[in-house]
């Protein structure tokens, strides 16, 4: 197998964590909405913490994409 094919396979493997990020984001958002519906008085605090957790989850996705692009461009 030539080197170009190996780098494409490595880049594809580096993007696999995006599946977990998608599942985690869906779970996080559905739980956040459910929590706000159950206790509307805590809406502001839940929303703030939810946005922070969503940002942390998105960071994992961005890092996976950066690693994939670095592998492809090396």
Structural write-up:
By secondary structure, the protein is mainly alpha-helical. The protein has a single domain, classed as Up-down Bundle (F1FO ATP Synthase), CATH 1.20.20. The chain is 86% helix and 0% strand. α1 (3-14) runs antiparallel to α3. It starts with a helix and ends with a helix. The model has no long low-confidence stretch (mean pLDDT 90).
Note the topology:
Layout (H helix, E strand, L loop, with lengths): L2 H12 L2 H22 L4 H30 L2
Helix pairs in contact: 1-3, 2-3
The count of helical stretches stands at: 3
Domain tally: 1
Strand content: under 5%
What global shape is seen? elongated
Q: Main beta sheet, described?
A: none
Q: Quick one: how many beta strands?
A: 0
Mean pLDDT: 90
CATH class: Mainly Alpha
SSE-based structural type: mainly alpha
Rg over C-alpha atoms, rounded to the nearest angstrom: 17 Å
Q: SSE order, as H and E? A: HHH
Provide the CATH topology.
F1FO ATP Synthase
Which regions contain 5 or more consecutive residues with pLDDT less than 50?
none
The CATH fourth-level homologous superfamily: F1F0 ATP synthase subunit C
Distance between the termini: 17 Å
Helical content, roughly?
over 70%
Name of the CATH architecture: Up-down Bundle
List keywords for this structure.
F1FO ATP Synthase; 74 residues; elongated; single chain; mainly alpha
Question: In summary, what is this structure?
Answer:
This protein is 86% helix and 0% strand. It has 74 residues and is an all-alpha fold. It has a single domain (3-72), classed as F1F0 ATP synthase subunit C (F1FO ATP Synthase), CATH 1.20.20.10.
């Amino acid at each position: 197998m030539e080197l170009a094919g190996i780098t494409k396979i490595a880049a594809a493997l580096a993007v696999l964590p995006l599946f977990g990020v998608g599942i985690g984001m869906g779970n996080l958002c559905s739980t956040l909405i459910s929590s706000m519906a159950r206790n509307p008085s805590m809406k502001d605090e839940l929303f703030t913490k939810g946005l922070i957790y969503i940002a942390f989850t998105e960071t994992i996705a961005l890092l996976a994409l950066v690693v994939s692009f670095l592998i492809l461009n090396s």
